[in-house]
Amino acid sequence: MTNETEKFTVNVNREAMRAIREKAKEEGLEASALIQRAIHELAISTGRMNNETANMLNAQYAIIDEMVALSKELFNQGRFDEHFVLRVFQEAMKRPHMKELYERAISGDAYGLKLPGKTPLNMYLGWYIKNAIGAEAKSDANGKPVRAQVRGEPIQTYTLLAMAQ
After folding, report:
1. Mean pLDDT score of the chain
2. Distances (CA, A) of 24 to 48, 59, 114, 154
3. SS in 3 state form for the chain?
4. What are the 10-residue block averages of pLDDT along the chain, 165 residues in total?
5. Which of 58, 114, 135, 143 is deepest in the core (most CB within 10 A)?
6. How far is it, in rounded angstroms, from Cα 66 to Cα 97?
């Protein structure tokens, strides 16, 4: 299994791209994230991918969907604070099915360190969590995002959040 990526350029009909942007906006995504998922789903559906890689990608998208739903649930319960990304991860790890999905997606222990797929997935999850509730990165006096570091959690570094103005 590999977490390596490959960049490529593709030309898309202007109207098709407009439709993709609109759909992505509805889902709180960037168009590139929606397109990336569609490409991965197409590749998996061909049956030509290594099963381990296909299973990892399926688990990654499943945990993304679960984390987005959990983010909305916790937000609606009034549990938002600047450490919301950490709170969502902590709550997810209390739910056995989410912990298992996360561990399949990272190919290892949720609390393990230096797993190759963990950092990029955690970065994506932080982004999805933020966008799921319409938050923005908390900024310092210079306009740079404020980040926090923790130990003994599935995520070690995350951006603090604020509600969008």
Report:
1. 93
2. 27, 21, 31, 28
3. CCCCCCCCCCCCCHHHHHHHHHHHHHCCCCHHHHHHHHHHHHHHHCCCCCHHHHHHHHHHHHHHHHHHHHHHHHHHCCCCCCCHHHHHHHHHHCCHHHHHHHHHHHCCCCCCCCCCCHHHHHHHHHHHHHHHCCEEECECCCCCECEEECCCCCCCEEECEEECC
4. 76 96 85 92 96 92 94 96 98 97 94 90 93 93 95 96 87
5. 135
6. 10
